[in-house]
Every structure is written in C-alpha cells, then in structure tokens.
From TrEMBL:
Annotated stretches, region: Disordered: 1-20
Lineage start: Bacteria, Pseudomonadati, Bacteroidota, Flavobacteriia, Flavobacteriales
Protein's recorded name: Neutral zinc metallopeptidase
Annotated membrane topology: Single-pass membrane protein
This protein's UniProt keywords: Membrane, Transmembrane, Transmembrane helix
Pfam families: Zn_peptidase
Organism: Chryseobacterium formosus
InterPro entries (alphabetical): Uncharacterised_pept_Zn_put
Length: 285
C-alpha cells in the first residue's frame, strides 16, 4: 500500500521502554498459542487478561528501537490517522460525533485498563480505556504458524478491525453485548452467536474503512485487499479449530468462519453506508 503524509498523535509506543510487568497466561505454550489466535482481532479479553498465570512478571531491558521498528511506528501512526479521519467523517455524515481511540504498541506485556496486556493475546481493543493494544511480534506468528502472508495492509486491516470495536463502543453496541453476557438470559451457544455477530460487524467496519479511506487517499495497491482477506480467513473459527483440535464445532464459534469473515469484510468494502453492517439482525434471526 502507498503511504500517506498523515500521522496521528494518539499512538503510545511503549516498545523499548523496559519493564514489562504482568504475568504470562498459564497453561503452557499450547494454551498461549491457542489464546493468541482465539483472541486475535477482537473480543472481550478482560477475563483472560485479568486471570494472570502462575509465572512471575517478565522484565525487559530498556533499549533503543531499530530503524525497522521506528518505521513500523510511523506506519501505525499513519494508519491511526487514516482511521481517525475516515470515522470522523462517517460519524459526521450520520449525525454523530467521533472520539478517537489510542493505539498502544508494546512488547511482551504492559498495563491496560482491562488488565495486563500480553503479547500472547494478540491485538485487542480495551473498551475501558478506549485503546487498541498491539505487540507487533504477533504478525510473525500469524505468518509462521498459520500461513497468512503478512503485508503492510494485513496490519492495516487488523488495526481497522480493532478500530471497528471502538466504533461499536462509541455506538453503545459493546455495552449491549456485555449486558447480554451478564444477564444470564442466554445459553452459551446463544452468547457465542452474539460474539460472532460482534466480530463480523468489526470486519464489516474494517472493509468500510478501507473503502472510504481509499476514496480519499488512493493508497490501495494490487494485492492489498487480497492480503486482508487472507488474514481474515486464516483466523476463521473453522480454520483455528481444525488446526488446534482436528475438527470443527460450529456451535462454539465466537468470531465467525473463514467464509463469513471474508464475506463481511467485502460487504463493508462494497457498502455505501455504515447502516448496512447490522450483523445482529442478519445473524441472530
């Protein structure tokens, strides 16, 4: 993808700062890998984040960032700025006011208002502090272990998905889904369907962001959309379950199948209005 000149000031780069803090999720390497993939691209990580583990906090040495890491930081600032501009306009067009989210870059572990943010969790959005947390090392694992070719637009798509959760938070959608989880009115299977609708709507918003931003900045290049779709398909629940347990149980889906993730991203990319992304009405009938 082509770079723009826009940069956001709402990026908190904690890489190289030393410290770390926070326990690693318990259960061994297999649990960590599965947790990373299951929670990749959203969801409510607060229960896992606050559960901690049996190991002691891991400290890291303070260090200077490499040129490559600095360039990644600039890229994240750029994508954050494009999200801010696009969503501010979409909200304005629909009679709402947008409030930017913060993006926190970290390595190993850092503090968040949802508990300890750990690299094992993958990128996630914390509603309590309206921030997206990202350890960039996750993308190496995504490419190495799940076969998704990681490009700059793969990272842009992941950020756009997490920003989609921020949009849901501002619109009160996350509050409604959280109330549903706490109400004891729904079975586990029903709550899983609500979770799938939440995640697929974030994929829709990611596609909508890509369309609107490209119309303004013309930054997409051949292969960019394909790389986003490849990443979305790689973390479909069916693909994850096949790799982790050898079979698929659709009732336990929490993020949607590979086909659904592709479908809703492309629905967003081809949409003309945010209101076309009502996954709840379409999936919970």
């Amino acid at each position: 993808m082509k770079w723009t000149e826009d940069r956001s000031t709402n990026v908190d780069d904690r890489r190289g700062s030393g410290g770390g803090g926070g326990a690693i999720v318990g259960g061994g390497l297999g649990t960590i890998i599965i947790a990373a993939i299951v929670f990749f691209l959203g969801g409510d990580p607060s229960a896992i984040l606050s559960s901690g583990g049996g190991s002691a906090p891991r400290q890291t040495e303070k260090r200077e960032l490499s040129q490559g890491e600095l360039q990644i930081g600039e890229f994240v600032k750029m994508i954050t700025a494009e999200n801010e501009q696009t969503w501010a306009q979409i909200f304005k067009d629909n009679g709402m006011q947008y409030r930017p989210a913060k993006v926190v870059l970290f390595e190993s572990a850092t503090n968040s208002s949802c508990g300890t943010a750990q690299s094992a969790m993958g990128p996630f959005y914390c509603p309590a502090d309206e921030s997206v947390y990202m350890d960039m090392s996750f993308f190496k694992e995504l490419q190495k272990n799940f076969g998704a070719k990681v490009t700059e637009f793969t990272i842009a798509y992941v950020m756009a998905h997490e920003m989609g959760h921020h949009v849901q938070n501002l619109m009160g959608i996350l509050n409604e889904t959280d109330n549903a989880r706490r109400s004891d009115k729904y079975s586990e299977a029903q709550l899983n369907k609500i979770s799938v609708a939440t995640e697929l709507q974030a994929d829709f918003y990611a596609g909508l962001w890509a369309k609107y931003s490209n119309e303004r900045e013309h930054f997409l290049e051949p292969g960019d959309i394909d790389s986003a779709i490849e990443a979305a398909e790689a973390v479909g629940d069916d693909n994850i379950q096949k790799r982790s347990q050898g079979y698929v149980n659709q009732e336990s889906f929490t993020h949607g199948s590979s086909a659904q993730r592709k479908e809703w991203f492309m629905k967003g990319y081809n949409a003309t209005n945010i209101k076309q992304g009502d996954t709840f009405s379409q999936l919970l009938r």
